[in-house]
Amino acid sequence: MKYPATVLILDDNLDLLTAARLCLKPHFQQVLLLSEPAELLTALTQQRVDILLLDMNFQRDASSGEEGIFYLKQALNTQPDLKVVMMTAYAELPLAVRAMQLGASDFIAKPWQNEQLLRTLQQQLVTKAASHVPVTAAVDSLPMLGESPAMQQVQHLISKAAATEANILLSGESGTGKALAAQAIHAASARSLGPLITVDMGAIHSSLFESELFGHKKGAFTDAKSDYSGRLMQASGGTLFLDELGNLPLAQQAKLLTALQNRTVVAVGSSQPQPFDARLICATNDNLAQKVQSGEFRQDLLYRINTIEITLPPLRQRREDISLLLNWYLQHYCEKYQQTGLRITPGDLKLLCQYDWPGNVRQLAHAVERAVVLAEGGIADFSQLFTVAASNSSGLAYETAGSATEQDFTLDYVEQKTIAQALQYYQGNISQAAKALGLTRAALYRRMEKYQL
Ligand SMILES: Nc1ncnc2c1ncn2[C@@H]1O[C@H](COP(=O)(O)OP(=O)(O)OP(=O)(O)O)[C@@H](O)[C@H]1O
Fold this sequence. Notes:
CATH architecture of the largest domain: 3-Layer(aba) Sandwich
Protein name: Sigma-54-dependent Fis family transcriptional regulator
InterPro entries: AAA+_ATPase, AAA_lid_NorR, CheY-like_superfamily, Homeodomain-like_sf, HTH_Fis, P-loop_NTPase, Sig_transdc_resp-reg_receiver, Sigma_54_int
Bound molecules: adenosine-5'-triphosphate
Domain Sigma-54 factor interaction: 144-373
Keywords: ATP-binding, DNA-binding, Nucleotide-binding, Phosphoprotein, Transcription, Transcription regulation
Pfam families: AAA_lid_14 (PF25601), HTH_8 (PF02954), Response_reg (PF00072), Sigma54_activat (PF00158)
């Protein structure tokens, strides 16, 4: 039986490509080969890929791995849920660790044994299946819940704003539902039949900013193998959702402002402005007014985007909604994991309603999912969350040096511990934790799912 998955192998060594294809073809539905790294972006935009097997070095005698890192970032920016396995002939641990910090899922040293390669890729598919509902995908189908006065006010603003063409700024802590609100606004607007194009501004590499947003012409730069329309044009007729806007560097803020003011884009390699027609929604978990004061955010850009500002309140400021959300997610995950009759004990419910939920609804949903999976005797098991809350630490058992065990030295363990500490330090702020860890937000989410944080 073949895995219903597509593997893309990128290496400039044609013999290696052939050998890898021979090894993998009997086991995977589709195995694609690429010898030209400049074509990676096009390949990923044209074709859904599950696993990318990526070489670290492309130029002759190169051993720094920088090219591999560059293409890794490019691949994850294009397809954030992609599993990337790095291949390196120079199996230096620091390089592999760096690649994994940047979002690679695993690495394999060349020359590999066929069995080892197969096992590594199979493992990626298992992890991919286990992380089932990615956070972003879950947003698509979930309703926006909340009966507290604060949420009723938010719902009211959403329906009023949706009926207009006004630019909207959504603010609020991480996990409070800004992306969900953007979807609700789009769905309730006259543009609902058009596209909703989301751009994570924190995840776009500065060198790709203009090309990604405004498009490029074929031949405008080395990698530009064909014309690309860009996100603003793609959103025409629909809604453009710029997430994590507070992370945008000043130079790029100026370019974005010009495009928004003129409602035109000039593709890289062109001098011809093209009009675009998209409704703008922006989101941030930063205080942009404060960033204006400190000179990190342009005031004119803020005025352009915040015609209507909607602030999503943190869960701790609307505790009335906690039990509603707990029950809704309990039912949701019971259906998903085919559990029946699970309940939350009154004692647990009380504690859960008192808890501050620094990661807001996202954290609550994850906690319920975990509790459903770990449930025994018909009772949802929140013990892991309570351990975290009680110790006010990451929930991991930190042994002293004297009691260290072998597992303390595994990369997985060290990574998990570091991520948990960063999340705790930044009080659940995903963007700040991701930045400190040197990860994209998508890569951090993937790891949080993996380690159940
Ligand atoms: N009011 C709500 N009702 C039900 N689910 C919600 C609600 N708010 C958020 N969620 C869920 O919580 C998760 C996080 O929401 P979302 O991604 O919209 O948050 P966010 O504020 O955009 O976070 P970030 O700033 O980290 O991107 C999603 O799975 C979403 O469906």
